[in-house]
Write the structure tokens for this entry.
Amino acid sequence: MKSKKLLMHKFIKDLLSVMLSKAGIILFSLGRAIITARWLGPELNGTITALAVYPALFMTIGSLGVSQATTFYIGKGTFNIESIKRGIAQLWLFSTIFSFIVCFVLIKEFSSAGNNIILILLATLPIPFNLFNTYNSGLFLGQNKISSYNKINWLPAFFIFIFSVLLIIVFKYSIYGALMAAVAGPLFMASYLFLKNDFIKSFSLKIEYKVIKSLASLGVVYAISLLIINLNYKADVVLLDKLSTPYQLGIYSKGVALIEYLWEIPMLFSTIIFARSAVSKDGEAFSKKVGHLLRLSIIAIGSISIILMLLSKFIIQLLFGEAFLPSAQVLTLLLPGVLLLTIFKVLNMDLAGKGKPWVSMKAMVPALILNLVLNFLFIPKYGANGSALSSTISYAMAALLFLYFYAKEVKVRVSDILYYSNSDFDIIKQFIISGKQKIQKSL
């Protein structure tokens, strides 16, 4: 009983830490989105979105799933941390060169913004720093150092926001300032991690063949599954860039921005789920706990989705200005799919933590195909709204398929995953009690 209370206390502590991190990410990212909307307008926001989509996709390819594989192997105690750090450093050098070159070529040849070399360089410069930060995150998660992991997430958003204020508002560097700010955040974070983790010693001529092979073999599976997942999220941007105008892409980007902040709620739980699942000795019992967290996530996201749907025009105008009012319709069309995809967002981290990322592809590949077909059909006629509708339909399909495959994999009935019980709210009760105790101590 005492150990159970200690575990719950640790979980609440980690949850509070992740909550603060996610709150910071949302606050600073939203601040940056407001600045780019009000100072740059829809068309330049569309150009920024078009430039950013390929680096975002290549973060999943270039990362090689190393962060997830690192968490898995450290959690299982397969390799010592110093060997893994050397392996990470060697993989980072290779993936940085590969990702930078390929991404530069893709933007130049396929993006509507590919005729400006300076903009392309600024868009691709964050890649090495983002990769380094991503690789490092697995070291912290594998050791269950949730608070250290959180810093990797919110500090870059903070620096990007500060530099956006300086470069866009104060110095009026327009789109160039926005892209330079996007470099500054990851650069500062990578510098901090390089010193904190003493990575200078990890750049060794001694090749960690066994570690690299293990990280890459499991990591590639993670990377492929993450690529398929991210293609579902980013295919609409790529196709809007090709089939529509920068204005439509800019309108779409601000509707999607609010959705991404909403997705931070299931990711709040997913960080802890992945770390716990990687070290869990009783996989079946842990999957049942994940079901509790899913049901709480659905309540939270469902409640906020209703508010966003009812107040979409007011919220969009308040945050981004009248020029982005059409983004309200994009937001409304995306919300049902986002609510359903919460099922995937939470449950997938359990299987990923168990070293089974490939299960996600059973749901995401058919959903991606449907997404592409619908985007080709709807974008020419309906623009940003057509892309939003395509995404919602494909998200719904992905969520329902994954729920079925997840239930089979963990040997739990679908009804047991979705049906609510009184015990679902124990974590909320514990959270309130923990909060009261902290307030009383401070008084």
Q: What stands out?
A: The chain has 17 helices and no strands.
